[in-house]
């Protein structure tokens, strides 16, 4: 995208076409280039245009609003299926929680990106296959492969959402990075919506309680369920129609939490040594250790995704680099603990899944750390780190397919 912008800087029509083809990627690429083009009048005009933010909130067109309302109602009705048809709630939600929201979000981006019919059919077919498959798995409460399949099916649906977000366009790596940024923005926006909804719920229930009417059970079983199902759909709609709402908040969060997480991680590793706790003999500690690893890795990717299109100070780059290095150390400890447990007690579905996931994460972190080091030494810019992250995402998608669909067959549904 950067090369195309430079090539067409004196061609306003072509520049406008590039912008309308992929606005987020154009903006990220332009912001990276602008420090070198400040003396160019055309570049100054585009800088003013891209950084103009309206103070008013856009509610989109009537078609978009209608779509969001219908999608929210359908998501709420799906969430109510156990109550309406007398289905066991644990059975339904453990297997189908991802189908409440993800298909609606996929449909939103398929519509917005005007995807080719063939790609839409593949996306719908994969979603339907996942729905049928997970509900046909044997209902064995002690089955580790069932739990793994349920968890990884949700990640599988998240990956399909990524395909819908990217659409049929070119510069796929940049769009994948945009998908990670969208996830960060969605977490912020959905969190705000849920906080506001929680306050409204508390006020409503207590107001009715003052006049002697207890509505909490009815409220949570009906209005609350629809509200929870609608929150990510409404959050997605708001982040896409009003990027300025969280466009400045998310980068600030990333910049504040990256150094804090780095310090916390260093202190935690030292405290772990003194506490005598280790992931080699304590299974629960190993699970928490791996959860910590995934969380920190997500923060690294979120930090890169939020600011890869803007100028980053050398200190910020160093923080992300050091965080990557420390996370690689944490990953190495977790990986050695898993290998130790396998050598001592043999292979199980859980150990195989954790081992594979940790190996993939380690490779990804090494690639990212190498790219960040090249940024520090001036051989690359931050955009290359984002491309590395984006190009690796399909690897995780393949792994979710293996764990969700193949592991139950390999391990005999144990």
Helix share, percent: over 70%
Question: Helix/strand-derived class?
Answer: mainly alpha
Instruction: State the shape.
Output: globular
- Name the poorly predicted regions: none
Radius of gyration: 23 Å
Please provide the ordered H/E string of secondary-structure elements: HHHHHHHHHHHHHHHHHH
Q: Note the beta-strand portion.
A: under 5%
Distance between the termini: 49 Å
Largest sheet: none
- The count of β-strands is 0
- Tell me the number of helical segments per DSSP (H or I, 4 or more residues long): 18
* Domain count: 3
Q: Mean pLDDT, nearest integer?
A: 85
Care to describe what's here?
This protein has 414 residues and is mostly helical. It has 3 domains: 1-52, no CATH class; 62-244, no CATH class; 248-410, no CATH class. It has helices spanning 2-7, 12-21, 23-33, 41-50, 62-79, 81-85, 89-96, 98-113, 117-136, 144-166, 172-210, 216-241, 244-247, 249-275, 283-307, 314-345, 349-376, 382-410. Helix 9 (117-136) packs antiparallel against helix 10, helix 10 (144-166) packs antiparallel against helix 18 and helix 11 packs across helix 15 (283-307). The protein starts with a helix and ends with a helix.
